[in-house]
Known about the structure:
Rossmann fold; 2 domains; 13 helices; alpha/beta; N-(1-d-carboxylethyl)-l-norvaline Dehydrogenase, domain 2; homodimer; 54% helix
Amino acid sequence: MEKIAIIGTGLIGRAWAMVFARAGHTVKMWDNEPDAATQALTLIEQALREQKRFGLIAEEPQTVRARITAAATLKEALFEADYVQENTAERIDIKKQVYAQMDAAAKPECILASSTSTIPASVFSEGLAGRHRCIVAHPVNPPHVVPVVELSPAPWTAPDVVARSRALHEKVGQVPILVKKEIEGFILNRLQAALLMEAWRLVKEDYCSVEDLDKTIKDGLGLRWSFMGPFETIDLNAPGGITDYAGRYGGAMYDSMNSVRYEPWDAALIGKIEAERRKVMPQEQHAEREAWRDRRLMALIAHKRGMADRE
Amino acid sequence: MEKIAIIGTGLIGRAWAMVFARAGHTVKMWDNEPDAATQALTLIEQALREQKRFGLIAEEPQTVRARITAAATLKEALFEADYVQENTAERIDIKKQVYAQMDAAAKPECILASSTSTIPASVFSEGLAGRHRCIVAHPVNPPHVVPVVELSPAPWTAPDVVARSRALHEKVGQVPILVKKEIEGFILNRLQAALLMEAWRLVKEDYCSVEDLDKTIKDGLGLRWSFMGPFETIDLNAPGGITDYAGRYGGAMYDSMNSVRYEPWDAALIGKIEAERRKVMPQEQHAEREAWRDRRLMALIAHKRGMADRE
């Protein structure tokens, strides 16, 4: 059982602690804010009870909780660690500093993985003696509910580090995918961006309302995409598979998108979309709705597990 | 209770018959193939039993089935009909011909709606005396499971026809959305196309495998999108809502997509994606996997209804 260190105990760091602890790993957490790691333990207890309620953990919450401890220093957190998941602020200077500290403190074979969603591993690991053991392991918020993890190695990340990261994430029940070459936004956020650019444009040019566009996804396309990807979806949408689909729809699809040029989201458009959303959900319900989203995600994961068990 | 006519009794036509019949409407079906409408009744019986098994209909399948009859002629199907859902082949000449026949046969206030996914209402209704009562009501396959319906009026479609179509689809439990102006692909398929163009490009340029890309959606983004749309998703992803999100991520998102130019899907790329899919799912499992998809969709809809009831 690999020993895990969590650096940075905000929302993402706490979620990672639970991911590893519920799979049986011992976890040491550290945060540069003095009491943050200790306070994180309380929030983790609450979150574990909620996961228990949704059937997402089999053990008692306190059994899982007992595997997690708060460390007083980064060095203490990394002592004997086999894998570090780093979750500090999205700033290059901070990442560089913390990676230098981690590279100095961790034992040689320890993997140093970052939760960053925007900074390539080559940027924060360049120049480190241990740059071969640095990698991005980008989760979706919150990773204790949403399983995908984008593994994005730098050009110099050792193949063995990629392989061990992938194996570890699979073992703890996450779904790791490999980003073979560094790219801005990795895979998931690029796919989101592609859809969003078109969504914003359709509203800007007044083809539909914000609320109606959301319905086309949540009551339409998003249903399939919650248990099949876009490639499996189109493969099954033509009797002859991908080639058949491309022959039927590829040309029209290319033509319809190729003619589009996107513009930056300007203040007028941002204001229009904000106003339409505020009619659907007043801003004062934001936190409450976030909690609703996380409950729905947990229930959906429980549903998907139930379906997988039946198959 | 509106009387419904279904013209064309393939997969989509049969699904529509069930949508209206399970909501209590009487439905008359006609197909230009001599025995198709009668054979459709047998398939509908099977499909209704499956919906019963997933808890998607409250009544007995035979009660719902009894509201559906096969008509011998188009004229008989349209006799006294208040709403026609047309599901003939995706060919302009066929649509024009059948719309002329329907416009002649239907009573004046009857709505003539098309399931077309590619032909704007202005194209097949131009020149008809009753062009004001023609509209596209584009479903997602299969509409008895996936609720969204894109209502896309022609410039001359009467506002009252749009309003009555919307009200009818809401009443039968579908989720109608309004496409305010005609546009190729309507809304849903444009959003799918935007994501697919980027997905194909990422595989072409070897950033990830087909299987891994599918995982980023089904184990990541697609989870949220199955119960929230893309706008609600980003609204909740920044504490201050849409404006906050646009300020944090809008610039980078625009830059990352603006630099991309897409190319038509060539034979080599189609072959590559087909080959990767065939490793995950052999072609001989295609029909079986389609049935699996529809069962998963039904189970997901049942799950979503359960969650909505709890809230």
